[in-house]
From TrEMBL:
UniProt-recorded name of the protein: Serine/threonine protein phosphatase PrpC
Residue ranges the record marks as coiled coil: none
SUPFAM superfamilies per the UniProt record, alphabetical: PP2C-like (SSF81606)
Bilayer-spanning residue ranges: none
InterPro entries: PPM-type-like_dom_sf (IPR036457), PPM-type_phosphatase-like_dom (IPR001932)
Organism this protein belongs to: Actinocorallia herbida
The PPM-type phosphatase domain, residue ranges: 16-227
Length: 263
């Protein structure tokens, strides 16, 4: 079955950064299901393995979704955050055992944020821990359903390495309106704009360019846009987007569980 989703992706290392801390990953599955994840390692001296923590975070999200027998609103709201954090902890422990100087796992060394999404024909699911941005375009309007109510102070953010990380997951479930565009991005992108309205205008413009030109030309231009954004924010900048070329944004769905199958 041909997927209805076109995927665009790009990542740029921030100026004067020694190592890009951002990681992203996506996977297509049976039933026109697309799973996406973006993570941003903290990068400070206290988090020297955070680039690895970010890679393990996107792996953890995709693994948890793959292993779920059914993905429902109840499962997402009650279990998803805890399962992702638990799997990330396991992957961190596995990496830790390959680092002889470390006697006890120190999650803070691997600190990272995470945004994950599941795009299915019957519903859209997203999960977020920490900063970064999930944007969805529905009926031509840009929504940021997981945006934190209060801004983080300075560089502080919720993290997978937090002691209460399982309770920090923000969940969004939309069973009725299917987005035409979904973007997951690290905070290096939104921080390059003066305010949230400017960032929203960028996402709206991205949707317009995709509609006018198609995915391939926009994908070619994306690295240049991200490089410019990184020059303003000074941070690593990553965007992972899914676009439906001919969306029916106003269509109504009949909610039902999604049975998870391996591709």
């Amino acid at each position: 079955m041909t997927s209805s989703w076109e995927v665009l992706h790009g990542s740029v290392q921030g100026p004067r950064k020694q190592l890009c801390q951002d990681r992203m990953k996506f996977r297509r599955r049976d039933g026109d299901v697309l799973v996406l994840a973006v993570a941003d390692g903290h990068g400070a001296r206290a988090h020297r393995y955070s680039h690895i923590g970010a890679r393990l975070a996107v792996d953890a999200f995709l693994e948890v979704v793959d292993q779920a027998p059914e993905i429902t609103a109840r499962w997402a709201r009650r279990e998803l955050g805890a399962l992702v954090v638990h799997r990330w902890n396991e992957l961190v422990a596995q990496h830790h055992h390959r680092e002889p100087p470390l006697r006890q796992p120190d999650l803070e060394l691997y600190g990272t944020t995470l945004i994950g999404g599941v795009l299915a024909p019957h519903a859209t699911l997203a999960c977020q821990i920490g900063d970064g941005d999930l944007c969805v375009v529905i009926d031509g309007e840009v929504h940021m359903p997981l945006r934190a109510e209060t801004a983080a102070f300075g560089d502080e953010t919720d993290s997978l390495c937090s002691a209460n990380a399982r309770h920090l997951a923000r969940i969004w479930w939309e069973p009725h309106r299917r987005p035409g565009l979904v973007t997951l991005s690290t905070d290096g992108l939104s921080n390059s704009f003066a305010d949230p309205a400017g960032f929203g205008a960028f996402v709206s413009g991205l949707r317009d360019r995709l509609a006018e030109r198609g995915a391939d030309p926009v994908q070619q231009d994306l690295p240049g846009w991200l490089d410019r954004a990184a020059s303003y924010s000074g941070d690593d900048t990553t965007l992972l987007a899914a676009w439906r070329a001919a969306p029916q944004d106003d269509e109504e769905w009949t909610p039902h569980p999604m049975t998870a199958k391996e591709t």
